[in-house]
Amino acid sequence: MSGSISAEDLAASKDVRIIDIRKAPDERHIPGSEKMNGDDLERSSELPFASDERVVLYCGSGNSCSRIAGTLRERGFDVVALEGGYKAWKEAGLPTVLRGI
Question: To the nearest whole number, what is the mean pLDDT of the chain?
Answer without folding.
Answer: 93
